[in-house]
Amino acid sequence: MKIFYVNNNGGGFADHIEINDGTTVGQLFAEKMPHEQPSDYLIRVDRLPASADQVLQPGSRVSITPLKIEGA
Amino acid sequence: MKKKDPAFWAAIRLQRILGQIRRRDQPDSLPLLSNLLHEQKSVERGWRLYQKAKARGWMLTANILLTRLDADIASVHAASRAARVPPRHIPVPTVSDIRAELDQLEDEFGGVQISCREKHIDVTTDPVTLQDIHLGPFSIQLCFENLAKRTDASAFVIVARDANPAASDCSCTHPHVRDEHLCAGDAAMPIAHALSEGRFGDAFQLINRVLHTYNPGSPFVDLDVWDGAACRDCGNTMPGDSRSCCDHCGGDYCDDCTRRCETCDAVICVGCADTDENGTRLCPKCKEDADQESEETYEAEEEQTPVSDDSIYVSQPVDPQTQTENADEPSPQIPVPAHAQDAQLPGGAADGGGKAGAADLPAAA
Questions:
Q1: B202: closest CA among A32, A35, A62?
Q2: Which of A23, A58, B181, B299 yields a CA-CA distance of 20 to 30 A from B230?
Q3: Which residues does B73 contact at the CB level (< 8 Å), separation at least 6?
């Protein structure tokens, strides 16, 4: 199924991606951010806070934003 | 008349602005096609020359032209590939998408202020505290006019609601904010992408996270000297816990520009420090006391010293009974110390009588 995935880490990424049916938020995070901790990020599904075990639906909008971003 | 919904009005305005930006920034495919045509012409010319060379039997020239023709064909192949890649088409978000973004701001920040007159969207962050320094909450304003000109962090205005600016720079209300503009650092690119794609919730949240993060590598003002003051003497900024106050003038000075009075141990600045005749460093009060004491000592010595600068005469108390009121009568003899009895004085006797050899002075009438 297709979801809209936004990753505000690094340079930023926002596009539709294909994921398996039944994928949870935690599984998506582990796949896309394998070396990071979910507690270091704001994770939103359809612009609302989401739990790790929430199952993603087709067309879901998932965004991941780091809690710590250094200015200059 | 139906009351205008500020959020709906703002969503329409933002959609128009994004549409204008999208049209303005549309990539031009003409340069890529003209390059392809140029390479094609090179192939045609090379082919004509090769045919002529071959017809005239110039095999060496023909071989050289064949090698060049092969390179020109490769260039055509590369140019055609570049011209065929379509630019990534990002659709302008719908009004309902933008409205959903504004609703997200309401949830994330506990409220959003939309000013139709001033044309900006305003959210307020939680109070920011970095390294135990309270900087207060900040207002993050997205100005529509700024957004139309540039889709990056400079479209935002950051206003301190309970400002605690740096002691050395009142325009710096946050280590990464000066003159109400954020230096976004690592967030610069994601903010730019978020704005250009209409993800306003992400853009505001990215700025919020930068405000809650301290980067000691490149702040406008280091937090270590945030509450510091400038030394009144050398001008250097001192951390709050390493500055000294002159006990005399009350000014703030760094440790290098202060001294201690060697009498009362008071802290004094270099400007207030003084020394006595022995070179002892004194504060102004001790210096004054020392001067007064010295003056009193001098006066006391003066009272006991006769009016003569001849060092062999020692002042003796004058017996009041021997004082004469008649100028004609001779003055009483002053006893001469033994060590001075042999001294030869010009114009005077050794016994100090003062009579022999002295010019006879006429008696006073």
A1: A62
A2: B181
A3: B43
Both tokens of B159, joined, read 């206003």
> Alpha-carbon distance B168 to B229, whole Å?
6
pLDDT digits (tens, 9 = 90+) for B213-256: 999 988 998 888 888 777 888 877 776 667 788 888 888 888 88
Chain centre to alpha carbon of residue B208: 25
Q: Does B189 touch chain A (CB under 8 A)?
A: yes
Q: What is the pLDDT of residue B183?
A: 93
CA B61/CA B39 separation, integer angstroms: 21
Q: Counting one residue from A and one from B, how many pairs have CB atoms under 8 Å apart?
A: 78
3-class state of residue B104 by DSSP: helix
Q: What is the DSSP string of B235-261?
A: --EE-GGG-EE-TTT--EE-GGGEEE-
Q: Using CA coordinates, name the residue in chain B closest to A67.
A: B209
Handedness of CA B322, B325, B326, B330 (dihedral sign): positive
**DSSP result, A19-49:** --TT-BHHHHHHHH-TTS-GGGEEEEETTEE
Could you report the per-residue pLDDT of B23-65, keeping only the tens digit for each? 877 666 566 677 888 889 999 999 999 999 999 999 999 999 9
Nearest CA to CA, how far is A28 from chain B (Å)? 19
Please compute the mean of the pLDDT values over residues A47-66 and round it to a whole number.
94
Of B248, B244, B245, B238, the C-alpha closest to B273 is B248
Neighbours of A18 (CB within 10 A): 8
Retrieve residue B280's tokens: 């002892």
Q: In what order do the strands lie in the sheet with A48-49?
A: A13-18, A2-7, A61-66, A41-45, A48-49
DSSP state of B295: H
Contacts for B247-256 with beta carbons within 8 Å, 24 or more apart?
A: B247/B283, B248/B272, B248/B283, B248/B284, B248/B285
Q: What is the pLDDT of residue B26?
A: 67
B356 confidence band (pLDDT: 50, 70, 90): very low
* Nearest by Cα to B141 from B151, B128, B127, B154: B154
Q: How far is CA B195 from the centre of its chain?
A: 32
Pairing type for strands A2-7 and A61-66 reads: parallel
From B107, B210, B219, residue closest to A69, measured CB to CB: B210
Helix (H, G, I), strand (E, B) or coil at A5: strand
B/e letters for B36-75, b = 16+ CB within 10 Å, e = fewer, are beebbebbeebeebbeebeeeeeeeebeebeeebeebeeb
